[in-house]
Amino acid sequence: MDWAYLFEISLTGIASGGLYALAALAFVMVYKATRVVNIAIGEMLMVGAYLFFTFAATFALPLWLAIPAAVLGSGLLGAVIERTMIRPLLGEPPISVFMVTVGLGSVLVGLVEMIWTADQRRLPDFMPTQPIIIGDAFLAPKVFWGSMIAVVFIAAVLLVFRFWRGGVALRATASDQAAAYSMGINVPRVFSLAWVVSSMIAAISGIIVGSIGGISSSMGIFGLSVLVVVIVGGLDSVLGALVGGLFIGLVEALASAYLGGEYKLLATFIVLVVILMVRPYGLFGTHEIERL
Amino acid sequence: MTPQSGPSAQQPLLQVEGVTLSFGGVRALSGVGFGVAKGSITAVIGPNGAGKTSLFNTISGFYRPTSGHVHFQGQDITNLPAPQRAKLGLGRSFQNIALFRGMTVLDNIKLGRHAHLKTNVLEALLYVGRARREEAELRADIEERIIDFLEIDHIRHAPVSALSYGLQKRVEMARALAMQPEILMLDEPVAGMNREETEDMARFILDVREEWGVTVLMVEHDMGMVMDLSDHVVVLNFGQVIAQGVPATVQANPEVIRAYLGSGDVADLRRKLHAGTTAAATSAQGVA
To answer: What is the ipTM of this complex?
Structure first.
């Protein structure tokens, strides 16, 4: 056993797990507030990355302008999606809303191919390029800096939602909509807020993921791993998203290093099946108990 | 504050006028009208399915009536959404306890004040200025007044899901009080409670009116409690008001007796009704 190699692989896994955690946070935000399983999370990541590409490469805006513009643009998209597709389905069976998000994913892929074509593209480099050495282990600079950015944003989102009234409103809405509504909490606005914030977080992770591996119209595949993360962690658990993200990142890295890249998804999904057998609500999900 | 009985010359705090509510072809309420005088305890009673909870939901803004109006403090609130009504001073509890599970008692109660807080993101994060002041005021008010008043000091840090049914009901009432309501709407405050818990709750309801000057509107099945506490009773049956007035009058009304106990010999049914309302019976016997 080569311990140095294992250490290096684990570091890479945890770092890319940070990216999963950020994207999973975007998913959990929407699920917690609105109980919508957003299958299109990967595609929303992609749109964020393409918006950044447009602002930074096509319009040649400086980075400090291109990134906020892409994030705000995605937030706007989130608001439009919530208002036009999700809110009219309020009170409909969850499966209907679920199917709408499946359709949304296809629509977003189609839009991206129409506007930007299906070609693979590179995002402009904005992260430092000198290699990162931790102990004897080498870490790809983009992965390292990308995960650092993810950690900063995760911390920021958690702080805001811990101490701000809007975060309290979100948690109350997640817990009991009728009660929240009668406490003076504007529940429809909480729904909008959740979608906007989720889209913005997705855009940030899209920009990071795109900077590491390039962008293309099939980038939404990343969303598949994010779904595994949130199911493992528990759909409505922020802590689950974070722990699940790191865990799945680690599993994927170890599987592709020791078993080969083609076993990466196999290993992840085996982990998923095992965890669901032991804990059907995910590691930290809420057990739903109906009281009659 | 002097409690007022029956209709008064003064404008009522809450006025329901000709409210009709239909779900498709089903009429849950038709032409319901009554007033709740300021400082009174008003009860809405009626058999199961009479439309009591529908009426509550219409008043608090969950349903919009098909026709008719709801006035609160002289303002037409028929078309206001529920959160706005909460800000105006309509606080309510739910028939099936609707607490925020996974939060502590204290957090649940604090959420009642949500509508009145104005702190923004930046202030909240830095915990300066308004955020600090609002939090301090909130704590003082909730800890000194509400928690002491409802005798739930010992469970303030407990998660609500771990509490007994009676205590959960009490926490729900505390949360409604934290909303600083003008009118407190209680949907079956003692349903499923034992005798002792019921007596505690009855005492709290009276104290809310006496000490806090909050008007109470409640839906309740426990006839004894309704007759004991209320100044004004509104009886619903099949979505219509079939009687209203002071408890004794309502209790003696043959139509009310029929609605509750089915048709039959009224005198006999009346005896049965009185047997079920032991506490109220003594005072009502003379009238009946």
So the answer is: 0.77
